[in-house]
């Protein structure tokens, strides 16, 4: 995947330097080989029969593509896939829409609750989700909000606001003030300045945090476990888990692993193209080639 | 800048986010704390049906051996898992910034497990890697002639915790590695060049240049790790059986879910949502304690992302 | 495809109804109400049923229920049925849903639901004795399986009947009949000594007599002790914080019996590390002979065994001096309950009886490889082996003789018993660990 890229950057071979790096290479190669062995087992299992999986005879009877067909249609993975797409897509947009202006205001202006709000953000950033789940659950039950796409969506948005705001707060702080000063001289209102000038400037940070959130919501399990009790609204990760629960009645393990692949493949493709961005999301954009 | 339009802007920009935070954080946190002092039949019971119980929920929890054990498990994950993950992550970060070829390939490959659902990974570890007859570990150690290691029963109750931690750490390393790589790359290269000219070795410059500059990022990673460990749940669930939880790998979070929503084994025992809430409060107190400790140790350091 | 199938099903059902009407004692067609009862006319049922299902939409059970719903609403066009496929999570949210009056009908495994939710249930006693339009004018009691009805009444713990049972299961020792034959064993053991002799014979013939995994490992010790001392004793054993009962000779005997299984080489060497479904898979693949579990296991391993596997089954053998003989077993089942505040309890009940009897009982049993609910429905061939145990059971006890009733104890016990049966600890340490788990010391 990424290998072709690095081949292009061939540096003159410096034997002495490479020899010094040898221990590092050995560790990397062993680790990645181990990882490939593990992950290729999942791929192999998804094309085998259940019997082959549990008797160490994977792929002995050829490739069983029907596992995938079963997962997609009977296993509901198509539905879960669509749900995850909705949550991740709208969830990210919503969280950014709430967070970006707030982060900008916090990073640029002094007002009486600035400090308090910033501290609160850090506090909520560190509060485990479990702390808030029980009351939210009882609200959802009380107002008949369980098993609705909108409920999960609102939760995904709101629960991510502190992280998103905090991340962008740091990002806005790194942007120079000269642009706004120039805009102010030109008589541009602050709100206009934000949308016309600052938001485009902040794009790298917004994309970064957006992708990071996307992957997080895509793989979200905990909130879905509590709030999505019906299969109509389940996202992928929890849908997968409910498949495992169903294993205890039908024993279709091969189909479980093909379902796993259906979850992994899109994320993996996304990762192939966007791994730099995703990685940058983890590290707050401070990554160099 | 006119102060009126400025104030309007601040209000417009911050109030929606504040409403969101208030809905999902402020009110629930307050209610959870209140719930922990009551006996509550069901998590959805109305407040008028709650019975005040003082601190009896806390007392009951502390007197339960299984619950005490969940905190031991948490500490084991926090300390041992933390040390192992941070060390390996740091090792990879150093290797990858030392000028190896194909850096972005290695980096992407090591981070890869983070994008795969834990549900999938856990099943792979349990049914393949740890299989006592033909699992990956069995085969590797057999090939190396290490019979006693090859016959190691990874998933027996005594070793289940270790097995779970190996599986979990293997994935988590990539995440912290990325943070460390980014931090190392922020260090101006000329410091290292100067050190090299002064004749200091790579190891020497790691301990004397890299580490001291790393205090900020350590603060960040330890904070992230603490929050992550307090919420440690899904791996415990996956490494338990389909029917019952396993004591060795139960975390406070898992205990809370099981107490509040029940599992197949506890389906016919009475539930008390107040107990669940009390666990939540304990988890939050633990978080507070840990953060106080962290900011004490890293007194003068900012969070660095 | 689906449509075609449901059409066929509708046809089959229609024929069935006609046949019923034709051969029944009444000469009138099924759709005409018998005079003198207030049962509604078959074509006139109307209303809505909101059903919270314990099945995931992906399970074979859901397919059968869906087919049943299609037919039911085809027969009664004015009936609307909505289903939330909740899967096993149903127990997590059902109480909230019932409080809010969101559901008319829900189901769950019988011992997980009935004891807690009797208050929410509608007493079905009268409806069950009255003529039932969907049963061609018979009453439900006429077609119900008496063994299951007893179990439902027991589990409810109150006067009255609060559930319609379906897909029963029975716990016993399931074994590979071919390996028994090869080892020359002709008689299924009924006492513990005979069981040990059976193990010895199997071992001598080169087989691994037994396997366990962490899924059902709690059953063996619990069954042994349960047979010896009964339910109340076990209940006290796990809840009494003084821990005194853990020194009882019977408990020591049970623990030592478990250790003996390992010491004599009767257990699979993987017993300690087997994670569900590894233990039952060992039996399915012929690597071990016996496994103590519910009859649902046969369907779980069907992907491995195929249809031809020759299964046998016997009740957990009785140790000497047992209080409970081998006629005491665990019969599980799913229980459908009608909500007390249902919009139309009768309608919900009729639908519940519709899909748990007759054609749908048969279909459920065939497609999910489960024991049929009605006593006269033909059993799937694979499960025939469990018929003896089910039919000879006169007293029904909870899963594991109730050893899981203390949720704070179970996770510790589960690990300890797996270690004991897998040779990683001895009886004395097992007892000490369990004792400290209940006493808190």
Describe the structure.
The complex is a heterotrimer of chains A (289), B (305) and C (441). By secondary structure, chain A is mainly α. Helix content of chain A is 77%, strand content 0%. Chain A has 14 helices and no strands. Chain B has helices at residues 3-35, 56-62, 65-96, 103-111, 118-129, 136-143, 147-150, 160-186, 189-197, 202-213, 215-230, 234-239, 252-261, 273-297; strands spanning 38-39, 51-52. The model of chain B has no long low-confidence stretch (mean pLDDT 86). In chain B, helix 11 packs antiparallel against helix 14 (273-297). Chain B has a two-stranded antiparallel ribbon. With 305 residues, chain B is mainly α. With 441 residues, chain C is of the alpha/beta class. In chain C, the strands form two sheets. In chain C, strands 1, 2, 3, 4, 5, 6 and 8 form a seven-stranded mixed β-sheet that branches. A two-stranded parallel sheet of chain C has the order 7-9. In chain C, strand 1, helix 2 and strand 2 form a beta-alpha-beta unit. The relative contact order of chain C is 0.16. The model of chain C is unreliable at 1-40 (pLDDT under 50). At the A-B interface, helix 1, helix 2, helix 5, helix 6 and helix 7 of A face helix 1, helix 3, helix 4, helix 5 and helix 8 of B.
Structural class of chain A: mainly alpha
Beta-strand residue percentage of chain B? under 5%
CATH fold-level topology of the largest domain in chain A: MetI-like fold
CATH superfamily of chain B: MetI-like
What oligomeric state do these chains adopt?
heterotrimer
Q: What is the CATH topology classification name of chain B? A: MetI-like fold
What's the β-strand tally of chain B?
2
How many angstroms separate the termini of chain A?
A: 16 Å
Q: Main interface pair?
A: A-B, 101 and 95 residues
Considering DSSP H and I runs of 4 or more, what fraction of the residues of chain A is helical?
over 70%
CATH class of the largest domain in chain A: Mainly Alpha
Counting DSSP H or I runs of 4 or more residues, the number of helices of chain A is 14
